Amino acid sequence: MSTPDLATTSLDLPAIRGRVDVVLSAFLEEKAREAAADSHPAVVTAFLRNFLFSGGKRLRPLLCVIGWHAAGGHGIPAPTVRVAASLEMFHAFALIHDDLMDDSATRRGRPAVHRAFADRHRTGRSGASADRLGRSAAILIGDVALVWSDELLHTAGLRPGRLARVLPLIDTMRTEVMYGQCLDLLATGRPTANTAHALAIARCKTAKYTVERPLHIGAALAGAGPAFRALLSDYALPLGDAFQLRDDLLGVYGDPAVTGKSRLDDLRDGKHTTLVALALERADRAQRRVLRTLLGNPDLDERGAGRIRRLLAETGAHATVEQLIQSRCAQAEQALDHDAFPAAARTVLRGLAREAAVRTA
Amino acid sequence: MSTPDLATTSLDLPAIRGRVDVVLSAFLEEKAREAAADSHPAVVTAFLRNFLFSGGKRLRPLLCVIGWHAAGGHGIPAPTVRVAASLEMFHAFALIHDDLMDDSATRRGRPAVHRAFADRHRTGRSGASADRLGRSAAILIGDVALVWSDELLHTAGLRPGRLARVLPLIDTMRTEVMYGQCLDLLATGRPTANTAHALAIARCKTAKYTVERPLHIGAALAGAGPAFRALLSDYALPLGDAFQLRDDLLGVYGDPAVTGKSRLDDLRDGKHTTLVALALERADRAQRRVLRTLLGNPDLDERGAGRIRRLLAETGAHATVEQLIQSRCAQAEQALDHDAFPAAARTVLRGLAREAAVRTA
């Protein structure tokens, strides 16, 4: 075995994850101290800490650091780590509001923020009033995470000119994910056979937000321009599509003990996923009638979900989504065969593509 | 009449309001064009436009521009106007989420965003499902307004070093208002006789957010440091307190046709305002029992509200709040007697203090 060179060791993913977590933890500790000094409620920092440290793959921060490295950045300087951490704080905002909009009961195996907050404040309140308080608190705690993701970014220690170069990418990423969520929201409850629309939602809501923009932001920190960012997109967009397609499958077939999420919610909500669109497209009249009755039914139980899963198999929708994931991941891997990418970046990006193809959580 | 000098004409408040609105309108038009080009839903920009242009005093943008001028800024350059506009976009976010948390039916005389969105999407949905969609959309549209307030700021055309100097003030303002909202939320439904706590909520949620920080941000754009900002605070904080105290009165006594808001909501929600805290503090046992029964009752009608208003008068709470407003406004005016302030700034700030004392909307 050869001696590891600097480029390889600098992409030690668990070590990067560790450094991101140190930044997040120290930031929240400082915020908790300030809150105590100003007589502000401690509950905001406490809930954000619980949320951030109950799990999460830290995928966006990792991709940000990999993007930095891919574009020729040396080592992993503190400002890059802090920008990466700001993406995780933004993601906490997105998940807290998403869980509220979907009324998800759990996240990362624990009660979602709106549920946990309501449960902690039931004493002396009616059930409805505690639930309403929980929903309001989740709106606010999500808002705080968004505002603090900005603060992490602003205090990253970037030179002003460097910060000014990254801000447009941050703004674009945020607008894209909001529109993706909006498309998702408008389509939920009334899924159709329109596969192209389901793929467009996934592109906007996940592929760009989760993979492409974090890589772009990291690359921009290292000075990369539009041409290099386009090379990263050739990898990021098919991989991001695959990531969402896998998420769609896990939302129906995943093991809640592993994913930390219900496997009934997407079906109960009537999410317009590629999986469901394909099934509706290929179903015969009788199958379509059954799907239409069951999808979006808030009282759907495991038995009904079992019927949907059989139809997803019978129509070939499940198998097709698996094939789409494999081909998208292969496409992402191919995009890495380019001299512009340093070997270490290529290695970890290839690993992420393979992991995305088969992940179970 | 003397010839108006430049300093006076540059603080023509209606003209500043007009320029802020032109920026907001052009920004949303550009966003609508981009959305159309990217097949994103048009509903987001449409709702934000409706919200922003259905009213609003533009108080925060005005104070930002006045702060710029007070600190010696010349004219009203485009970047200053755009930063001012970003404060109004942030305020749209705050109000949209606030209305959702309070479940307010109307804002600026029109249905609140969550209600309007639900009403527009009832076809083919159950009532509960349309209401849920409306709530989710209001979360998202508010989030978009927050993200776009950032984008307005980032694209204001400030030199990077100048932007870097303003960002910490923006971050502080946002954290403060979030904590203020959080304090408000936790106190709502269980008002007490704790007047100090009610005043602390008002300080955090309104005085700093609405008056102090906009002035500070404008002043920082003109290069002002902490010492000058402290002079502005001497004016801003008492005025901001008065502003919230007036809001508390309007929430109970205001004419909905003028305020655009219900005058039952605060009472039904059981808001912990200074007005209510004073009444609870001074009530005898029988009066307190009646107040405790009526405040926070979601089914409170005009008759019950009338009983509360009588008790607010009998306990002297109403009169005391009026006195507090007058003394706070006088204190704000006195703080203007300082050589550091240019005459034009002093004149408009004095006008705002007098207006705040007697406003009806």
Automatic annotation (TrEMBL), chains A, B:
Domain of life: Bacteria
Needed cofactors: Mg(2+)
InterPro entries reported in the protein's UniProt record: Isoprenoid_synthase_dom_sf (IPR008949), Polyprenyl_synt (IPR000092), Polyprenyl_synt_CS (IPR033749)
A Pfam entry, by short name: polyprenyl_synt
PANTHER family: GERANYLGERANYL PYROPHOSPHATE SYNTHASE, SHORT CHAIN ISOPRENYL DIPHOSPHATE SYNTHASE
UniProt record similarity statement: Belongs to the FPP/GGPP synthase family.
Name of the molecule in the record: Polyprenyl synthetase family protein
The species this protein was found in: Streptomyces roseoverticillatus
Classification of source organism: Bacteria, Bacillati, Actinomycetota, Actinomycetes, Kitasatosporales
